[in-house]
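Troubleshooting log. The previous structure file for this entry was overwritten by mistake, so regenerating from the original sequence record. Sequence copied from the archived sheet and checked twice against the printout by T.R.
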Amino acid sequence: MTTYRARPVTPAALRELRTADDSGRPLSPFTDAEGGAPLRCCLRRSVPGERIALVSYAPLRRWAAGTGARPGPYDEQGPVFLHAEECAGPDEHEGYPFPGAHRTVRRYSHDGHILGGELVGTPDDNAFRNAFDDPSVALVHVRAVEYGCFLYEVRRP
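Regenerated output below.
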């Protein structure tokens, strides 16, 4: 059983992103011919034939808006895939999403500043425990190594 929970993009943020992304661009859906895109709405990979979109997303900015943090120059935005229409969200399953590749577990303070990161194989409870052993860590972002893209967020249990 996993101790920490991978958090998808919130339903409220998804509604906004499906209108205009965090760069102000309108949604431009397409049919995924090949499948395999990491969907941040339901934390699984797409299958061929699904309608998806690639949008610009600023996860730290959105978190900071709810907490009063001021990430300043750490306020990144980047590309994420999501279903073009509302989906059921993630299924409850054992383990963490998008396994089988190296990931960066990036740590953020309560102010939204980067405190460091760790390159891991597939993220597991130990990676998150290591991050949250530091009391100044408020949340972590799991990012793809190959493109640096945000995959999901983990907070303290």
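Strands lie at 6-7, 30-31, 38-39, 44-45, 51-57, 78-83, 103-109, 114-120, 137-144, 150-155. Archived copy saved in two places this time.
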